[in-house]
Write a structure and sequence with these properties.
By secondary structure, the chain is an all-beta fold. It has one helix and 54 strands.
Length: 581
């Protein structure tokens, strides 16, 4: 179906913009004696990508009209040019579905003679790249050997990296919903130290976890925040992290504030909850954490009145580039129900309704206007008296002031099986061509004008190794862009054990550390031939990392250690480690 619809788009040179729900497309059909209309299918499914198309055959002896129920659909009738033919093709095109749920609409097809039918259109779900963490700060004592688990809520691939070698993460990459284990090495100093762990994913806002580790012989009591606001309703609660290495107590000064637990030993968390709801006026209270030999920590607790509905946003004006799809994440702070609306078909949003504090996602589609285009999204709330208050968000999509030729990805993969296909959206306002440098990789769309999809087809890769090809996009007077295409092997995978770091150097100080990167598809073991060089792990599987750490070198000369990595069926790999004097 993709090949067929792409062929139609190339043949007719159509770039079909999203039509308003009242737009009609009509084509005069050749008439025969009898009036009738039939449609080849009354239910169709269309892809999630912008510009996805599907076709339906219509047979009619009358003038045909079509009306799309929603403005994310467009319809165009293409008449059959054969003489005396009374059939035509209805080409249906969709804008991008930015949400992880499918959506549906309908198209009304009718004639002046009173014939009427409806086509149900189901658009596939499209996953927004989301990335959320259960915590954004962690606290460790100097000799803490705990492993904190951070929940990652995502629907795409993500990466994890620490900016300090004394912080260990259980995995550097992941996909979807998983847990990250974070631990720290012993802090030998008498002062606290801090680190940042960054979690990133393409198309999503990066997240950061602040790591604090206290020094030796320090009595510590700290909290993640010193002021919180509860919503008006009963049972609203907030979690606050506690960092400590001593016994502590937590006390509330108001009977409507419940704190749990009321005491603890070491680091943990408390939950502050409202146990009576809907106050007529806003109110305040405090929760106090205290321990022997440390400064008391006070948390101010605010609760809004039931009549004081509010919605606050960190900003209301946004600008996105006209190329590609924009994704805006807006944290909504509220204590009531709210709804979202827009006046423009180039933006989509999720959720359409919300309650209290949630994240609003706004997606924009590529635009090829010469001038900037402004869309408005509004958030409405209704107070106790039924009055509606609204906050408007202004989204500016930058106009195109120059020639454009941009693929939505500079690298893609294609399956190892024969006749496998891949598609890449090309954002352009030029005539462009596409060529391949490999005979096994063919271009289904060698030339096109404006925005469209580049289709690729690959022959089977029967070897066990990955192979690569490049696609060159070019346009006269503009230049070229190169897309890397990767096809994995389809044969038996050979055993592999390699390292990207065969030689490493360490400083003379205690705790000097480096990372050994391992590329493998086996279960492997690792060992050091010197007691002064330790490894954070001695066993692993597939690709991974080993963090090596050395004690202080008190010698006047450098010293050397060998780390050996072994796996069955392959030669061992060695890493030479030199520590400075």
């Amino acid at each position: 179906m993709k090949k067929f619809t792409l062929f139609l788009c190339m043949f007719f040179g159509l770039i079909i913009s999203v039509l308003g729900s009242e737009n009609q497309v009509q084509t005069q059909m050749l008439k025969v004696e009898e009036s009738s209309m039939s449609i080849s299918s009354n239910e169709v499914t269309i892809g999630a990508a912008s510009g996805s198309t599907v076709s339906v055959e219509i047979i009619s002896t009358e003038l045909v009209y079509v009306i799309c129920e929603n403005d994310w659909l467009a319809a165009h009738i293409i008449a059959n040019e054969e003489i005396n033919a009374d059939n035509s093709v209805l080409l249906i095109t969709a804008s991008r579905n930015p949400f992880d749920e499918s959506r549906s609409s309908s198209i009304r097809v009718y004639t002046d003679a009173g014939d009427e039918q409806f086509i149900s259109v189901l658009q596939n779900a499209n996953t927004l790249n989301l990335l959320e963490l259960s915590e954004n700060s962690l606290f460790f004592n100097a000799n803490d050997d705990s492993v904190f688990q951070i929940d990652v809520n995502s629907n795409t691939n993500w990466n994890v990296v620490s900016n300090q070698s004394w912080v260990n993460v259980s995995q550097n990459t992941g996909n979807g919903n998983q847990c990250i284990g974070i631990s720290v090495a012993t802090n030998p100093s008498g002062t606290k130290r801090v680190a940042l762990v960054s979690v990133t994913a393409n198309g999503a806002t990066s997240k950061t976890i602040a790591i604090t580790q206290w020094g030796q012989s320090q009595s510590v009591l700290d909290v993640s925040v010193n002021e919180v606001t509860l919503n008006y309703y009963w049972d609203d609660s907030i979690k606050i992290n506690v960092s400590s290495n001593v016994a502590w107590t937590a006390v509330s000064n108001q009977n409507w504030i419940q704190v749990s637990p009321s005491s603890g030993l070491g680091s943990g968390a408390i939950y502050i909850k409202s146990v009576s709801g809907e106050p007529e006026a806003s109110r305040q209270g405090t929760v106090t954490l205290s321990a022997t030999g440390v400064e008391t920590q006070t948390i101010q607790v605010n609760q809004v009145a039931a009549s004081e509905f509010y919605i606050t946003l960190p900003q209301t004006e946004f600008t996105v580039n006209s190329l590609g799809f924009g994704l805006i994440e807006i944290p909504v702070s509220s204590n009531t129900f709210w709804t979202v609306g827009s006046n423009d078909g180039v933006v989509d949003f999720k959720p359409e309704t919300g309650f209290a504090n949630e994240t609003l996602y706004i997606a924009t589609e590529p635009a090829f206007y010469e001038d900037d285009h402004e869309a408005v999204v509004w958030i409405e709330q209704r107070d106790y008296e039924g009055d509606i208050d609204a906050i408007e968000l202004f989204i500016t999509i930058k106009g195109q002031t120059q020639a454009v030729l941009e693929p939505d990805a500079l690298n893609t993969s294609i399956a190892a099986e024969g006749n496998s296909e891949a598609y890449i959206a090309i954002y352009s306002n030029l005539n462009w061509t596409a060529t391949s440098n490999q005979s096994w990789l063919s271009v289904n769309t060698p030339q096109y004008t404006g925005y469209g999809f580049l289709g690729l087809t690959a022959s089977a890769n029967v070897s066990s190794t990955t192979r690569y090809g490049t696609i060159t996009l070019s346009s006269a007077g503009y230049g070229s862009k190169t897309i890397l295409v990767t096809q994995p092997g389809n044969g038996i995978e050979l055993p592999k054990l390699e390292t990207l770091t065969p030689n490493l150097e360490l400083n003379a100080v205690n705790g000097s550390a480096r990372t050994i990167e391992i590329l493998s598809n086996l279960i492997w073991t690792a060992s050091s031939d010197q007691s002064w060089l330790t490894l954070n792990k001695t066993m692993g599987s597939n690709d991974g990392e080993i963090i090596i750490s050395a004690t202080e070198n008190n010698l006047a000369t450098t010293r050397q250690a060998i780390v050996t990595i072994s796996a069955p069926g392959v030669n061992p790999v060695t890493v030479t480690v030199i520590q400075a004097a």
